[in-house]
Amino acid sequence: MSGRLTGVYQLPDGSFPPRNSKLWIRVPVDRNNNGVTVYSAPTVVPINPPTHPTAPGFYDSGLLPEGPYQIQKAIFGATDYRTRWYSVVLGEGSHTVQELIEDYDPEQYTPPVINQVAVYRDEARTARDEAAQILDDVSAGAVPDSAVASKITTEGSASRAAVDSRVAAGTEGLLSQDDAAAAFAAKSVETTVAAKYTKPGSGIPLSDLKKADLDSTYAPVWKASTAYASGALVMLPAPINGPGTRNSSGTSRASFDATEQGLWTPSATATVDGLTDASTVGKAVAKAADAGAARNAVSAVGRGDLFFNPFDYGAVGDGTTDDTSAVQAAYDAAALVAGAVILPKGRFNIPGNLVMTTPGVSLIGQGGIVSGGEVLLGPATYAAGSGGVNFSGTRVQGVQFDRADAYGTTTRCLVLRNARGVDIEGNLFRNCGRAISITTADGNTKFHTVSMLNISRNRFTTCRFAIFADTVEWDQLSDWIIDGNFFNYALDTSVWIAAADGSQGGVDGLTFTNNTMFALNYNSSTDPNFAGKRYNVRLGKTDWLSIKGNKFFESGLSALYLDQPRHLDIVGNHFAWSGEREQGDCIEIRGGSPWGAIEDNTFDWWTRAAVGVYGTAAAGQLKIGKNAHRWSATPDSWKGAGSLTTTNSFRYFVDTTVTGRPVIDEWDAPGVFDMVKGSNRVSARRQMSDYGGIGGATRRSSSVTGPTTIFLFSDVGESTHYNGLVVIQARSSGAGSDNATYVLAVESGGRTVTVIAAIGKTAGAAATHPSFTWTIDGSNGLVATPVGSTSGTFFFDATTLGAVGVR
């Protein structure tokens, strides 16, 4: 019988693949000595073949024998893309690729070639569940004769000898589905549990597990009015709650009262953890942890995974003994079947480091602590041009890392090397120099070498750097998500992604959301460590940067330092107490061409600027607006030298070397000033069309005793060609607050000013009257000339409408 693979292939957006795209089909043909399935050379099925020029996306395999196959889709264009191999079953008739992928059910069909490793895997999964159930039974006080022994003596179960004989007969050559079913159809508890401890390379011998083994390991519970022989071993009820032996033969009393208690001698081991085991399997099961921990381990990894416990490979877990080889052995065993390493309660000292170089093998913590060394995740190098795709699908979850080196300089916990698609979730990092480290020195030298990284819901405490990345080129790192982490007391910087000197380095794509960052509190300013704290976040060159919903607290210098940023949005964050030991900004931008928005943030008690733009940055496409501000000249958090004033602390600061001006769309109460390219005043504008918009500016405390330039004009795009309406409100700084309003029409061609209306104290009858005439000078400055007796200090506010802006 034969089938056919045919249809029309469409991309997710409805378009069709390029003409040289194709499907690859391969069939399992053999199994090598390591028990790994071997496949035939792939057969190519073209998409858009030349024989069908009018049928885009068409493909046709021709007639193929029915049976199991694997299919890979390869799309070639501006970017090449290949899927994973999909297992499918081709039946009689014509089928599309998607139909075969969606209909494949491994429970209903198993290819005739059985992978020996899969057999071990399935047996181990069953063993895991059986072992967990046995521990549950014992924890609940069940009698082995009924709860455990029944599983061993199930009628019709194959004897151990029969199973061993059948398995041995099938290990040379192919093992068919019928062979596998016959060998394992009627498994007794002894073969199921023992199989868990016969993984290839485990080093644990296969030994019979009989009812006597279990009886000697787990005692039955005490029963009332029951005959017991001298020396009988049972699990005694409260208040002993543990094993004990009968002092003499006799019948137990109706209740476990004081008299009955005197007839028994409690054993020295009174918990499941302390049971004395008489079998190899019993010892391995007991070491795994109690019943609750076993259930948690299964839940954390998933019932489709295999998990490997370092205690099964000789780990001690006391924090002193060198457990490096045991933990590495557990990992190497897990790597054979894409499983996971479980770290139960204990302190695993790994001075020799754990090296994780196999994709898809995870490290899962269940109360375990890693100390004494590093976890190296990813290969030391990879082939040029592979983009890091040869290492992915790994999780590090729920692990406690403790290097016992609070605020250290070089100690590291987790080191990433050439890894893509890694999840680091729910871990605790403490007492180290760099909790998560990614550096060029570790082999991260190629384009996007560490990418698609997810760092979420972790806690960092007493580290010098929580996340430290130092690469030569900024685009060696890409597309990171750092979300929902708690950074507590990172001595230097919570997140550092830059070169060592802070200049290049960086990341090509970063989503930084919902994180909370604390540094050493300002009340601890006498602590020697206080002098070492710098930033909450420092980033080198970046593109596609999204920073939202974070809390930046108590930085020594600027809270968020951006070096050469490009596309960005910084929205909805809280910044407080920025620049405690030296004047700093909430957001400091150095160089680059920032293109994006800084909006809806809350800025409190900074010491230099809420937002500062410096160096050779081009700021014309930077939009700033709708932020909340609170500044004080005397915040409790300021521990630096000198005083804070409105001449050295600003709401928004733009250096005179910066090209263009950011669009500022907000106002604050008088007393909070901007310093935009040397002009000390509050200003704002909103562009409504190509040339027109609305804007405004404030000038405070201007001394006017003769012609004085108050504002500068341009259009809303910063050119010197402008025209429109300007409303000037002027008032005296004195107690009487005399005021006047002028409506002016201005035009740059002839630098003309036409007064449309003037109301208020405009005649100059007294020195405090804000009475002025208006002209435009050669620098496009609006010049106020006092009239009559007008002379003194005045406040000015300007509002513009049309193709004119004011600053």
UniProtKB/TrEMBL annotation:
Q: Name one Pfam family in it.
A: Pect-lyase_RHGA_epim
Top-level taxonomic group: Bacteria
Q: What Gene3D superfamilies has UniProt attached to this entry?
A: Single-stranded right-handed beta-helix, Pectin lyase-like
Start and end residues of each Rhamnogalacturonase A/B/Epimerase-like pectate lyase domain? 307-513
InterPro entries linked to this entry? Pectin_lyas_fold, Pectin_lyase_fold/virulence, RHGA/B-epi-like_pectate_lyase
Q: Please state what the protein is called.
A: Rhamnogalacturonase A/B/Epimerase-like pectate lyase domain-containing protein
| Gene source species | Gordonia rubripertincta (Rhodococcus corallinus)
